[in-house]
From TrEMBL:
CDD domains: Ribosomal_L30 (cd01658). One of its GO terms (molecular function) is structural constituent of ribosome. This is Large ribosomal subunit protein uL30. GO terms for cellular component: cytosolic large ribosomal subunit. Gene3D superfamilies: Ribosomal protein L30, ferredoxin-like fold domain (3.30.1390.20). Residues 3-53 form the Large ribosomal subunit protein uL30-like ferredoxin-like fold domain. It holds the Pfam family Ribosomal_L30. Part of the 50S ribosomal subunit.
Length: 59
């Protein structure tokens, strides 16, 4: 299964670990979307920044 991740909130004033998690997901700007494999590394980064992103499952 794959996950579609979209950055919906900006990174201004966020902590360094949150910015690094967003970058590791491949997101740069608001409204950037990426389709990623569902694995523990991706899930961990999503958990760190779940308040900044939108996630949906893709078949």
């Amino acid at each position: 299964m794959k996950l579609k991740v979209k950055l919906v909130r900006g990174l201004a004033g966020k902590k360094k670990f949150q910015k690094e998690a967003i970058r590791s997901l491949g997101l740069r700007k608001i409204n950037d979307e990426r389709i990623l494999e569902d694995n523990p590394m991706v899930r961990g980064n999503i958990e760190k920044v779940k308040h900044l992103i939108q996630v949906e499952e893709v078949k």
